[in-house]
Amino acid sequence: MRAVARVVAVAERQGRTVLRELRGESPLLLRQAAAEQGVPTVYVVGGAAGPLAGDDLRLSVEVGPGATVRVRTVAASVALPGRAGAVSRMRVEAVVHDGGTLHWLPEQLVAAAGCDHVAESRVTLAEGARLLWREELVCGRYGEPAGDVVVATSVDHAGRPLLRQSLAAGPAAPGWAGPAVLGGATATGSLLVVGPAAASGPATVDGGGQPRGRVLPAGPGASAAWLPLAGGPAALLTATAVDAHTLRTLLAFPADAHIPPALLTTPADGHSPPGGVAAEGVPGAGPRRPTARTGTDVVPVA
């Protein structure tokens, strides 16, 4: 199956963002939902099971100058096996113009046993663009081994490379479960933040005033670290965990705090602003007490 979908968000003269184009086809169906804290929100709805081996799916997102849009999915995407020797592909291309903001916050990609899936993302950012980009991978459904999967992300900022990241997991990737890659974890993900708020992230600063990465407390069987990126005002949070629920908690700041774009500026204390954390969209997750990350600690919110 082949499908193409496209989202184009532009800002009107009054500053309000409108969706000039919202076009999809099964299984990539697009639906506009109620705005979240004033941010127009689009959901990708799966119109069929999959992706199945042999599927070729493409989604493009363009955010015009001064516009803001948030893209989510209604459920996790489960990559499934299909005909022998076939590979399924999901390509996402995003362009954010100067002054535009994109929040890319889909649910998890689950690599079911026997699948052979490639997820490719390419993001092009103008110098004044802002970005929240979350990716999560769960290696296998409950009680089953992982299928083969490659997740590759490429981000350019102001015409220069900002991030080149690729992960291969599953039986065809030797050593993927070893200490050099996932270390036995079955869930992994990252959150990329680009913009003034991400100048250092919650990172330490060395004697020369340069931000350095920081390992965050993550609990048993999990790990998390913030890394400032050299190619722009950007920081990358990466995490591994034993399940999707724990992984979402580690990646929930600041994306799921629903921080309005106007607040994505660097506070005087040098840290990104804290916000509420919810285990939204995590399969099997029940209601949880909100939390907030301050510095390197996760604390309850009353």
TrEMBL record:
It comes from the Bacteria. Residues 274-289 have a biased composition (Low complexity). InterPro entries: UreD (IPR002669). Residues 266-302 are annotated as: Disordered. Its main location: cytoplasm. It is found in: Cytoplasm. Keywords: Chaperone, Cytoplasm, Nickel insertion. Required for maturation of urease via the functional incorporation of the urease nickel metallocenter. UreD, UreF and UreG form a complex that acts as a GTP-hydrolysis-dependent molecular chaperone, activating the urease apoprotein by helping to assemble the nickel containing metallocenter of UreC. The UreE protein probably delivers the nickel. Belongs to the UreD family. HAMAP family: UreD. This is Urease accessory protein UreD. It comes from Micromonospora humidisoli. The gene is ureD.
